[in-house]
Amino acid sequence: MKAELIRAKTMTSISEIKEPLWEVIDLVKRYPGVLANDHVSLKLFEGSIHGLLGENGCGKSTLIKMLSGVQPPDAGRIRCRGEDVQLHSPTDARAKGIATVFQEFSIVPSLTVAENIFLGRLPTGRFGGVDWTVMNREAKSVLAEMEVDLDPEDITGNLSVAEQQLVEIAKALASDARMIILDEPTAALGLSEIDHLHKLLRRMREKGCAILYVSHRLDEVERIVDEVTILRGGQVVRASGETEISVDNIVAAMIGEDVGEHYPKTDNSREEIVLEAHGLTTAKGVSGASFSVRAGEVLGLGGVLGSGRTEIALGLFGADPLLEGEVRIHGKPVKIKSPMDAIRAGMALVSENRKFDGLFPNFAAGGNITTAGLSNITRAGFLDLSTEDKVTAEYIQKLEISPQADSKTINLLSGGNQQKVILARWLFCNADILIFDEPTQGIDVGAKLAVYRLINELTAQGKSIILISSDHDELLAMSDRIATVQHGTVTGIAKASELSHVDLVKASSDEATHKLQESAA
Amino acid sequence: MKRIFDAQLLGPAIALIVIATLVALTTDRFLNPGNLSNLSLQVSIVALIAIGSTIVIITAGIDLSAGSMVALLTMLLAEMLKFMGLPLPLAILLVLGCGLALGLTNGVLTAYLRIPSFITTLAGLIAFRGLALLFNNGSPIFSLDPNLEPLFYGSLLGIPLPFYYLVFFYGLAAVVMNYSKLGREIYAIGGNPSAAALSGINVRRVQTYAFAIAGFMTAIGAVLMAARLNSGSPNYGQTLELQAIAAAVVGGASLAGGRGNVLATLIGSLTIVVVQNALNLNAVPTSVQNIVLGMIILAAVGVDMWRNELSSKIGALFSFSSAKQRGA
Predict the structure, then answer these.
(1) Of all helices (H) and strands (E), which one includes residue A302?
(2) Nearest residue on chain B to A378, judged by CA atoms?
(3) Residue-wise pLDDT tens digits, B29-63
(4) Which residue from A156, A474, B74, B243 has the highest number of Cβ atoms inside 10 Å of its Cβ?
(5) CB-CB contact of A45 with A15 (8 Å)
(6) Do A385 and B179 lie within an 8 Å CB cutoff?
(7) pLDDT tens profile A332-343
(8) Are B191 and A363 inside 8 Å of each other by CB?
(9) Cα→Cα distances A211→A45, A206, A227, B295, Å
């Protein structure tokens, strides 16, 4: 890491001499009520990975949208090799050599991998028909260059989320772009896949690409980027070269204060066992998982993407029916056949993918908060809406949710606010056992801290938490014990204090090698 | 009350007022008391059916079977009154029960057997009219019961009875959709079925209820149709389902689910009927009327889509999105 840092510094001095490939000068973008970008300037150099960081709502996405031609700036200039250019549309931006991998996938699930890679510019043959041979061959060579073992003729929708993400990246690479923008490319990836992606990005850097990299996972940012620009409230608060690339410095610049402790963990674990799971087995890849959770404890589930962590949570919560296994709560066996049963038994699940199975985009905060506990505010079939309003106002205040949440539908809020609303949903149910699946994914540092504090508060009340996280620092710091999960079963449980990053990575890499052997066989 | 009369009503209401004003200014007979009461009769059947269509649309489904179900149920009512000699109240109750059962069938096929509602109700659209033809060798049945017609043409305190039906059922629907647990669950499963399931909502059951409500409202429409014409016929109710869906869409309901408002649907029904009435008064041929109806649907949906873009451009001035939106 030292070497990286030194290189970063030399990079900065080089950048003062070299001409930037792309440059944005004083970009301004205003939305109703918000100045999303307030005179943002940025230089992107060939052969450099530039981190663009900031809390949710700081204006990163807006800047990316303008750079990829999705939206025009209100004022300011975008220059390519020193010349002013206008980016009229995403196609226009792509023609000028900018490829963007958006946070929201632009993959068409029903098409093959190759078709997705060449979408919008399918190679055509003599009579204007698609030349499948050429397309599949070229897709294969792009994937081979990425060292990704995917069949170009596979249907993309059948792939795992991580593999789809790789297809998305392949799509950007195949377009021979000189500048690649990656918006949270690792949100859906496991550790080995992230390493893989980083290798790939370094290779692209050697080839002279300019890369703009956006991520909330600061540990990986620290490893990969050469320079960082930090935005806050639509303005550049630290231009390239002004921040030393270390998590502490970046966090301080992002939130504008020194947070000191990133993981304010308090130990609230008690002896009493609340939940016991024996031999949980589901049709979706959980095979004989056993573990127990104590009162006031945070039990972490560690393991790579696809190891079955999420599936264990879904099985426990009744979303995937249990084929075998027993769940006991406070020593008494309970039958959980549906989420309804789980909620009645005092469980809660903050699911992995907010957009897909968490949010009700048609409701403001109120409707989103009360859905899982509607019976708490129902009298004779009718809702007590004044209580709902009161409860909503309380949670907005308690969890420091944006006051706009009260009136705006939730799809208009930032990821951090959305996540807090979903947490409020389960607090409102007064659940005793809360499963948090990637609770801090894609949310900013401030919101992450709020989630950690909430975990402490809940455990202090004696509630139990099952924490699933791909962020190893978070998992190690916030868990009392960690269960490592492989192939849908728990392979070991240890105290978090006795585990290290290395142990978790090792568990993951065992998994990775196993996967490789499987695919080789 | 703020919850029921929310921002969703504003757009459709303004459109209706503008259209009605234009019509009143250009067509003398429009404001005649006779014409206005005729209007409320005209709108009543489609508007009552549109309550069910709207609720189904909010669950992200669609009900194409309403028109054919009306034909089947008028024939059933006629058969029971004319040939089986059942007393009128009993026959009506049985017809309402049958509507509920047919709606439940649509719901079970869609929710539990997971056949898309477009297909289940398309099958209903075709099959129900076929069933209607099985009665009386496929011929209409006339002169049903002397007490049937007054249900449609009667009046109370000088106001036609259908007006009261509209007030009652729309009031009930608005309260259920905005204040009841079921209403909230209907909006929830339309907004995000996966999230609704993980929140402990029985998605399939709620979906089934929505279709059952639609079946019941269709049966109400069928009884009024039979009363209006004092007969049953396998030809009644053609394209009625499309008019009801059009009313919901003009009222701002989204076919993607999760968005819609029953009172806005009433405004949508009125808009459509006012335009039809104006064209009738000006002796415009049916062909042109249908073209105009098509245009209205396009304009209503278009304006709704563009409004969001406009509001983001022009800002708070024309933005309705800042107003309190609850489940709508």
Answers:
(1) strand A298-302
(2) B181
(3) 888 888 888 888 889 999 999 999 999 999 999 99
(4) B74
(5) yes
(6) yes
(7) 999 999 999 999
(8) yes
(9) 8, 11, 11, 49
Residue B113 has pLDDT above 90, yes or no: yes
Contacts 24+ apart (CB under 8 A), A489-495: A489/A286, A489/A287, A489/A288, A489/A289, A489/A308, A490/A289, A490/A290, A490/A291, A493/A291
A371 touches chain B (CB under 8 A): yes
Handedness of CA A278, A283, A287, A291 (dihedral sign): negative
Non-local (6+) Cβ contacts of B193 within 8 A are B60, B203
Q: How far is A416 from chain B (nearest CA, A)?
A: 18
In chain A, pLDDT over 90 holds for what percent of residues? 17
Return the HEC string of A230-268.
Answer: EEECCEEEECCCCCCCCHHHHHHHHHCCCCCCCCCCCCC
Which 8-state DSSP code applies to residue A130? Answer: B
CA angle, A14 as apex, A13 and A16 as ends, to 5°?
70
Place of tokens 């639509």: A234
For B200, which of A357, A372, A409 is closest by C-beta distance?
A: A372
Out of A344, A378, A412, the one facing B181 most closely (by C-beta) is A378
CA-angle at A287, arms to A283 and A292, nearest 5°: 120
Q: What is the pLDDT of residue B218?
A: 97
pLDDT of residue A132: 83
- Strands A298-302 and A464-468, how do they pair? parallel
User: How far is the C-alpha of B97 from the C-alpha of B99, rounded, in Å?
Assistant: 5
A469-520 tens-digit pLDDT = 877 778 888 999 998 888 888 888 888 888 876 677 666 555 444 443 444 4
- B138 in A contact zone (CB under 8 Å): no
- The count of CB pairs under 8 A between chains A and B is 107
Is the CB of B325 less than 8 angstroms away from the CB of A407?
A: yes
DSSP string for residues in A181-248: EEESTTTT--HHHHHHHHHHHHHHHHTT-EEEEE-S-HHHHHHH-SEEEEEETTEEEE-TTSS-SSHH
pLDDT digits (tens, 9 = 90+) for A88-140: 888 888 888 888 887 666 788 888 888 888 887 777 777 778 888 888 888 88
Distances (CA, A) of A200 to A4, A304, A470, B155, B243: 17, 20, 20, 79, 57
- Indicate yes or no: CB of B202 within 8 angstroms of CB of A340: yes
A81-90, B104-113, B187-196: range with lowest mean pLDDT = A81-90
- Between CA A364 and CA A421 the distance in angstroms is 10
d(CA B202, CA B215): 20
Sequence-separated (6 or more) residues with CB below 8 Å from residue B246: B268, B272, B293, B296, B297
Distance CA A92, CA A129 (A): 24
Q: Does B184 touch chain A (CB under 8 A)?
A: yes
At B287-314, the pLDDT tens digits run: 888 888 888 888 877 776 776 565 555 5
Chain B hits for A33, Cβ within 8 Å:
315-316
Q: Give the pLDDT band of residue B327 (cuts 50, 70, 90).
A: very low
Nearest to A358 by CA among A305, A412, A419, A299: A419
User: Which position has the token pair 């335009």?
Assistant: B275
| Conformation bin of residue B4: beta by default, left when phi > 0, alpha when psi is -120 to 50 | alpha
- Three-class DSSP category at A273: strand
Which residues in chain A have their CB less than 8 angstroms from residue B201's CB? Answer: 340, 371, 374
| Whether the Cβ atoms of residue B261 and residue B180 lie closer than 8 Å to each other | no
Which residue from B minimizes the CA distance to A345? Answer: B200
pTM of the model: 0.76
Beta strand extents in chain B (DSSP E only): 141-142, 155-156, 159-160, 231-232
- Checking if the pLDDT of A9 tops 60, the result is no
